[in-house]
Amino acid sequence: MSPAAHSPGMLATAVHILDPVERIPVVLPAGTTVTDPAIIEQITNPRCWDGNPPTLTEAGATSSARKAQPA
Protein backbone atom coordinates (compact mmCIF):
# COMPACT_ATOMS: atom_id res chain seq x y z
CA MET A 1 0.00 0.00 0.00
CA SER A 2 1.49 3.35 -1.03
CA PRO A 3 1.17 6.55 1.05
CA ALA A 4 -1.26 9.23 -0.05
CA ALA A 5 0.28 11.63 -2.56
CA HIS A 6 -1.28 14.71 -0.96
CA SER A 7 -1.62 13.99 2.72
CA PRO A 8 -2.85 16.97 4.76
CA GLY A 9 -0.21 18.04 7.21
CA MET A 10 2.76 16.83 5.14
CA LEU A 11 5.42 19.35 4.20
CA ALA A 12 6.42 19.73 0.54
CA THR A 13 9.56 21.70 1.41
CA ALA A 14 11.81 22.30 4.39
CA VAL A 15 10.61 25.02 6.78
CA HIS A 16 12.20 26.94 9.63
CA ILE A 17 10.09 27.37 12.76
CA LEU A 18 10.51 28.05 16.46
CA ASP A 19 9.96 25.10 18.77
CA PRO A 20 6.70 25.98 20.55
CA VAL A 21 7.98 24.85 23.95
CA GLU A 22 11.69 25.67 23.99
CA ARG A 23 11.51 28.66 21.57
CA ILE A 24 14.61 27.55 19.68
CA PRO A 25 14.94 27.48 15.86
CA VAL A 26 14.10 24.13 14.24
CA VAL A 27 14.22 23.00 10.61
CA LEU A 28 11.52 20.54 9.52
CA PRO A 29 12.54 18.69 6.33
CA ALA A 30 10.26 18.02 3.37
CA GLY A 31 8.08 14.95 3.95
CA THR A 32 7.56 15.66 7.66
CA THR A 33 3.98 15.15 8.84
CA VAL A 34 2.96 18.00 11.12
CA THR A 35 0.10 17.49 13.59
CA ASP A 36 0.98 20.01 16.33
CA PRO A 37 -1.36 23.05 16.03
CA ALA A 38 1.35 25.36 17.44
CA ILE A 39 3.64 24.38 14.55
CA ILE A 40 0.91 24.46 11.89
CA GLU A 41 0.08 28.01 12.96
CA GLN A 42 3.68 29.10 12.28
CA ILE A 43 3.77 27.79 8.69
CA THR A 44 1.88 30.54 6.88
CA ASN A 45 3.02 29.95 3.30
CA PRO A 46 0.52 27.54 1.66
CA ARG A 47 3.17 26.44 -0.86
CA CYS A 48 5.09 24.74 1.98
CA TRP A 49 2.37 22.08 2.28
CA ASP A 50 1.95 18.99 0.11
CA GLY A 51 -1.64 19.59 -1.00
CA ASN A 52 -3.94 21.91 0.92
CA PRO A 53 -2.63 23.40 4.17
CA PRO A 54 -4.17 21.71 7.22
CA THR A 55 -6.57 23.75 9.29
CA LEU A 56 -6.13 24.12 13.01
CA THR A 57 -9.45 22.34 13.58
CA GLU A 58 -8.14 19.31 11.64
CA ALA A 59 -5.18 19.28 14.03
CA GLY A 60 -7.47 19.32 17.05
CA ALA A 61 -6.98 22.93 18.15
CA THR A 62 -9.99 24.62 19.71
CA SER A 63 -8.36 28.03 20.15
CA SER A 64 -5.08 29.71 19.33
CA ALA A 65 -2.16 27.45 20.11
CA ARG A 66 0.21 30.36 20.76
CA LYS A 67 1.66 30.55 24.21
CA ALA A 68 2.06 33.81 26.09
CA GLN A 69 5.58 35.21 26.14
CA PRO A 70 7.10 35.53 29.61
CA ALA A 71 7.46 39.12 30.84
**What's the quaternary structure here?**
single chain
Helix content: under 10%
Write the H/E string, N to C: EEH
Average pLDDT, all residues:
81
Largest sheet: 2 strands, antiparallel
Please provide the count of β strands.
2
The helix/strand class is little secondary structure
Strand content: 5-15%
Radius of gyration equals 13 Å
**Count of helices?**
1
- Poorly predicted ranges: 1-6
* Strands side by side in the biggest sheet: 1-2
3D structure, described in words:
The protein has 71 residues and is largely without helices or strands. The protein has one helix at residues 37-40, and strands spanning 15-18, 25-28. Strands 1-2 form a two-stranded antiparallel ribbon. The protein starts with 14 loop residues before the first strand and ends in a 31-residue tail after the last helix.
Write a short abstract of this structure.
The chain has 71 residues and is mostly loops.
Please give the structural blueprint.
Elements lengths: L14 E4 L6 E4 L8 H4 L31
Antiparallel strand pairs: 1-2
Descriptive tags:
two-stranded antiparallel ribbon, 6% helix, 71 residues, 11% strand
